[in-house]
Amino acid sequence: MKRFFHHTLLSFVLLLLLSSSTSCSNHSETSKGKIAVVISTLNNPWFVVLGEAAVQRAEELGYEAVLFDSQNNPSKEQEHFDNLLSSGYKAVLFNPTDADGSAVNAKAAARAGVGVFCMDREINEPGACVTQILSDNYSGCIQLGQYFVEVMNGRGNYVEILGIVGDNNTWARSRGFHSVVDCYEDLHMLAQQTADFDQNKAMEVMESMMQANPNIDAVFCGNDAMAMGAYQAVLGAGKENHIKVFGFDGAEDCVNAIREGKVEATGMQFPKTMAITAAELADRWLKGERDLPKKLPVAVELVNGMNVSHYGHFGRLD
Questions:
Q1: Non-local CB neighbours of 212 within 8 Å, separated by 6+ positions
Q2: Which of 46, 177, 185, 216 sits at 20 to 30 Å (Cα–Cα) from 149?
Q3: What is the tens place of the pLDDT at every residue in 251-288?
C-alpha cells in the first residue's frame, strides 16, 4: 500500500512538471519576441494612452511588450535603453524625452540591430530610427490660430505658454500658431514662457503673467495639461469670463471644459492611431520589410464648442 502511494505521488509530481514544462514551451513558441515601449512620462494622460495602446497592439500581434516610463528624465531613458539592449528586445516603440539627446539612445539601438519607431515626438537624427509617426502639429496649430483670430475678432492682448523647450513639438505648435496670428497687427503677444507641458507649472506661470500683465485677453497653451493649469489660474483670479483659454492635445478634461464653455478650443491628436501604427510597422520590419516610410504625419483636428459633441478622450465618438 505504501509502495503504491509513493508510485502514485511520484507520477503526480512528474505530471505536474511535464505540464509546467509544456506550458512554458508553448508560451515561448507563441511569442514572436520582446518589444519595448519607452514613453517620456506616464504622469500625463495623453502619454498613458499612447503607451498602453502601443503595448496592447504589440501583444495582439504576438509579441511580449513591456512599458518603460522615462519620467521626463533623459538619464532614466538611457537606463531603459541600456536595459532593453542587453535583454533581447527586438524593437522599441519610442516616445523620446528630447529631440537631440534621445538620438544617442536611438543610434545605440540601431547599432545593435534593434528597430526604433518614434511616436508623437521626433528625434533630430531620423536615420537612427526606422520611422517617425508624428502628429501634424504645425498644420493643427494653423487651424487653431485661425480659430483664435476668429474668436478674438482680430484684436486683443494674449500670452503664450510653451511646452518643453527641447521638444520639437513645442516649436512646431508655436510656429504654426504664429504663422497665422502674427499677420494681425492688432493682436499683441505680451509674454511667452515655458511650463514644460506641466499643469501645475502652467498654473504658476499664468498667475505670474497675470500679475505682470493685467490686460490679458487670451492665452494659447502648447498642450491641454497646461491649458487646464492656466484655466485654474484664471478662475482663481476671477477672470474666467474675460480671458479665453486655448489648448492642444484632445485630453478628456479639456474636451469636457470646452463642452462646459470654460476653454475655447483644442487641437485633437490621435495617440491611439500613432501607437497602433508604430506597433504594426515594427511587426512588418521584424518580418523583414525594409521599404517603410521615414516619417508619417497624423492629421490634427480642431475641436471647439460647435463640434465638441463629436469628440471624446483623444478621439472621435463617431
A1: 191
A2: 46
A3: 999 999 999 999 999 999 999 999 999 999 999 999 99
